[in-house]
Design brief:
disordered C terminus, mainly alpha, 16 helices
């Protein structure tokens, strides 16, 4: 029973991510079809349409695609930050022993693809794309695993999630350090001061979503104007959100019983009557009590996760995956091939080799119920680097549309082959468990 209670939230997480992967795939296909149809010009003009606000001497207008990539994706990175904080404090990587195996696997999954990209790349103009094959797309990866059903154990999915989260940490650091230009340190200082003040406010007093939302917008704007990508503000803001509850479950239960008894005492049997003063007071007390027993971090993560999975990430894919594929269109085939190979071969060798070395030197051990053949399957799936890879490609090549589009095609090709290879390995190396009633 206890095991079931502990695993249910993670199983729900996997289910959400799996459906998100399907939506991502669908959005990608629609974007590719639209961009390569007779209406391709309307696809491009849609995302370049400028919207924003302006008054007196202030103006903030951006193309729609940048509102998605700089604005909505900041919310995505905020949720990543919440997940990172939770995992570091109470999750699958909150101790050295728990983190060792996915950490070493993730280390290989970062080092080898980057090294392979730098080795294969012969053009100085495209060397800055080295960060593209770093990260695994957790939504796509879990969607692939979900199609295998009971052929793969839950512990394998936990391993995949843990090393993908560590991948995300590396990607966030790389974006902050290597893909930020013309930095205005004064704006960054202002933003960090506000983040620290917000953290102190939450720590010393009480979590306030209203105050946090107002300051978050200001901090996002400061980072936007600073030269550091504004999505980094999302990660930093996430670490200000408290994880601890103000009220323990026992105290909550006692207070809940008291409020419930009060409501029963002052209420009558007429279902349609207006609430009496005492009833309204008791219900208000119930609202306050509920907010105090919830973990702000856990509550925000839960509320935002569906928005991220079902709206923001599919919208990001829809806006960014529409690459025109034509013999009349210029592509950098060398860059395309380098990225595809770095994702497919680099991720596979990196994750598999470092996992093997960790076990060989007794630094780690295989998760319960997992075979090394299954680790090979996950190592291949790690090459599915869709969302974060496209995001970094946009940052790396900016207005160089030939390189951006070539990178996107390479990412799509490498991700598709990696997904098919990983699925095939897991399908062959895992046996379906009989259904128990």
């Amino acid at each position: 029973m206890i095991k079931k209670i502990l695993l249910t939230p993670f199983q729900k997480f996997i289910k959400t991510e799996s459906l998100a992967g399907i939506l991502l795939f669908g959005a990608t296909i629609i974007a590719l079809i639209w961009a390569n149809s007779g209406y391709g010009a309307s696809y491009e003009s849609l995302w370049q349409y400028k919207i924003g606000i302006s008054f007196q001497e202030f103006e903030l207008k951006k193309p729609l695609i940048l509102w998605i990539n700089d604005g909505l994706m900041a919310i995505f990175f905020f949720v990543i930050g919440l997940e990172l904080k939770r995992e570091l404090l109470i999750g699958e990587i909150n101790t050295v022993k728990k983190a060792a195996f996915p950490f070493i696997a993730a280390l290989g999954g970062v080092i080898v693809p980057v090294a392979l990209y730098l080795f294969l790349n012969k053009n100085p103009d495209t060397v800055k794309g080295w960060g593209i094959p770093m990260a695994t797309d957790i939504a796509f990866a879990l969607a692939i695993l979900s199609t295998l059903g009971k052929r793969v154990p839950l512990s394998l999915k936990i391993f995949l999630t843990a090393f993908a989260i560590i991948d995300d940490i590396a990607a966030v650091l790389v974006i902050a350090i290597f893909y930020s230009v013309n930095i205005n340190w004064l704006f960054i200082l202002y933003g960090i001061i506000l983040i620290v003040l917000l953290g102190l406010l939450y720590y010393k007093h009480k979590f306030s979503l209203d105050i946090g939302l107002v300051l978050a917008v200001i901090i996002w704007f400061l980072f936007l104007k600073s030269g550091i990508h504004p999505t980094i503000a999302g990660v930093l803001l996430a670490f200000t959100i408290p994880i601890k509850r103000k009220l323990k479950i026992k105290s909550f239960s006692e207070s809940l019983t008291s409020i419930s008894n009060t409501i029963v005492k002052v209420s009558d049997d007429d279902e349609n009557h207006l609430l009496a003063k005492d009833e309204m007071k008791s219900i208000d007390n119930l609202d306050a009590l509920t907010s105090e027993v919830r973990s702000p971090l856990q509550h925000l993560e839960k509320k935002l996760h569906s928005w991220i999975s079902y709206l923001i990430l599919p919208l990001f894919a829809f806006a960014n995956a529409g690459v025109v594929i034509s013999t009349n269109y210029d592509f950098n085939f060398s860059l395309m091939t380098t990225i595809a190979v770095s994702l497919l071969v680099g991720k596979f060798i990196g994750v598999a080799l470092f996992s093997y070395l960790g076990i060989k030197f007794n630094l780690t051990e295989l998760p319960s119920g997992v075979t090394f053949k299954q680790i090979l399957g996950v190592s291949a799936i790690a090459g599915v680097g869709f969302t974060m890879s496209i995001f970094i490609a946009n940052l790396a090549f900016g207005s160089d549309l030939i390189s951006v589009n070539s990178a996107k095609v390479g990412i799509i090709i490498g991700s598709i082959i990696s997904g098919i290879l990983g699925y095939s390995i897991l399908r062959l190396s895992s046996k379906s468990e009989p259904t128990t009633k």
